C-alpha cells in the first residue's frame, strides 16, 4: 500500500505515493446478469462505472477481491481504480469543489489524515445512512466530528520490523536498535517519518502527552537516527529492503513486513517496549456528485464495511478490520500488532487525528530537514 517519492517537499498530507503518478485504471464490470438487492429510482439509474481512488500493488489486489469485484458482480457497475497519489487527489478534489466542478472521484480511499482535511473543509458527504455503519468498532468513527463525513475502514501499526538473521538472540525489544552502530546504513523507515514520530518521542525519553508542544525528545532521537544513515522510502521499498536483505531493522507497516515474509524472506516484527504507533485509512465521498452516482458510491462503501467485504479485503492486507468479530489471518492470531478488539488499542500509541492534521506538515518538514543535514 510506490506511494511516496521522498523528494517532493511541497506535498501536503501524504502517507503513501504510487510508483505511477498517473491514473491507473482497472475496470471490473462484468457482462453477467445483474443481481440487485437495491430498489427505487436511484437504484435503477446506475452509472456505467464508479471511480475509486486506490493505492496499487497488494493494496489494489485486496480491494479488488474484497470490494470492487463483488460489487461489480452484484450491480453490473464497473469500478475504475484511480491510482493518483493520495495527497494530489485531495488537492484536485478541493479545487474542483471550490470552482463548482464535479469531482472526478466517487469514492476516495485515502489516509484518515487526508480524508479529515477534506471533511474539515465541508467537502465530504454524510455517510450516516449507510447500512451497518453504526455497528462498526469505535475506531471506525472519525475523530472530531459528531457525524460520519468519512468512515475509517481498518487500522494498522507501524511496527518494529527486522530480519531474523540480524537478531539471532531474539527479537529487538526497543526502538533503540535503530540507532545501534552495527546497523549503520541498514535501517529503514518512511521518507517523511510518518508513523514514527510518537515512537521516536518515547524512545528519545519524552512522553506521548508532549506531542505536539514538547517534541524535543523526538527530534533528538531522529538526529541520532540520521547518523545511522537510514534508508528512506515507501511501502514497496521497505518490503523490498527487508526481503532482499538491504535493511536489518525498520519502522514499517506490518502489512509491508508481512509481504516480505509471504514472499519467502525470514522477516518478523514486534511491539517494542516503548510500544508503536497505529493509525487508520478511510473512505469518503466528495460533495458535488449527481444524486444517482452518490447513491451508488454509498452502496460501494456499504460493501467495503460489510462483514464479507471486510473479511476478504482486510485479510488480504493482513490488517485489522473495523467490522467486529471477524477472524484474522491464521498467522496473525494473537499478534500484538494486530488489534482485534477495542482493548488491544490501549497498549499502542495514538496521535489524535486532528493534531496530526494541524501539525503533520511541519513534522514532515522537520524530519526532512534533519535527514537532509550532513
In words, what does this structure look like?
By secondary structure, this protein is α/β, with parallel strands linked by helices. The protein folds into two domains: 184 residues, 3-Layer(aba) Sandwich (D-Maltodextrin-Binding Protein, domain 2), CATH 3.40.190; 146 residues, D-Maltodextrin-Binding Protein, domain 2, CATH 3.40.190.10. It contains eleven helices and nine strands. Strands 1, 2, 3, 4, 5, 6, 7, 8 and 9 form a nine-stranded mixed β-sheet that branches. Helix 2 links the parallel strand 1 and strand 2. Helix 3 packs parallel to helix 4, helix 5 packs across helix 6 and helix 6 packs parallel to helix 11. The longest helix has 20 residues. It is globular, with a radius of gyration of 20 Å. It starts with 40 loop residues before the first helix and ends with a helix. The N terminus is likely disordered.
List keywords for this structure.
single chain, 374 residues, alpha/beta, D-Maltodextrin-Binding Protein, domain 2, nine-stranded mixed beta sheet, 11 helices
